Prior knowledge:
Order of helices and strands of chain A: EEEEEEEEEEE
Oligomer: heterodimer
Structural class of chain B: mainly beta
Distance between the termini of chain A: 37 Å
Largest interface: A-B, 20 and 25 residues
Number of strands of chain A: 11
Strand content of chain A: over 45%
Shape of chain A: globular
Distance between the termini of chain B: 37 Å
Number of helices of chain B: 0
Helix content of chain A: under 10%
Number of strands of chain B: 11
Low-confidence stretches of chain A: none
Amino acid sequence: EAGVAQSPRYKIIEKRQSVAFWCNPISGHATLYWYQQILGQGPKLLIQFQNNGVVDDSQLPKDRFSAERLKGVDSTLKIQPAKLEDSAVYLCASSLGTSGSHEQYFGPGTRLTVT
Amino acid sequence: QQPVQSPQAVILREGEDAVINCSSSKALYSVHWYRQKHGEAPVFLMILLKGGEQKGHDKISASFNEKKQQSSLYLTASQLSYSGTYFCGTEALNRKLIWGLGTSLAVNP
Lengths: 115, 109
C-alpha cells in the first residue's frame, strides 16, 4: 500500500513570497489533515477535510493560508504572503474516518524555511 | 487545552524500561500515541478509546484512566530503535485531536 505523498520535501522562500504544498493521501482515506510542526513542538492542526468538505479550520490563519481538496482526493495548502514565523515542517496526514478510533498516517512533510 | 506530557525527556540504557505520561484537563474520548524520529514523520503506535478498546502494535503497551483523563505509555526492555519523540494526542468530547509537546526518549547502548 502506498503511503501519503507530499511535495516538495524542502522549500526556501523569502518573506512575502507565496508557496504551495501538495499532498496525496492513501487511497480510500476520506479524511485529510494539514499540520504545522514548529521545531520542538507537537503538530498543530491547520485544517481537516472529510472528502472535499472542511471539518475544522479553526486554527488556519485565513488571511494568508488557504487549502483545498478538489474531488476529495489530493490537496494543496498555500501560503501567501509568507512570514518568517511560517518556517516549519508542514505535515499531511490521512485516515479512514474522522472519529478518534482511526489512526492517522503521515506523509514525510515539507520543510519550509522563510528568510 | 493541550495535554501535558511527562517527563519532557528520558535517557535510557538498552534494556531498561520507561513510562511516559499524558494528562488532560478535559473528559476524553480517546488518546493517541505516536513516535517521531528526527527528520521523519510521526508513526502511529496506539489508540486508546473510552470504554476500554485499544488499537495498536502488539509490542506497545499503554493504559487509559478515563476518570483521571490520563494515559501512560509503557516501554519495556527498550531497544535502540525506540529512540525518538513520543507524542500523545487527546481527543475530547468535541472530537478534536490536540497534540502534546512530546517526550524525547534516547536509548543508549
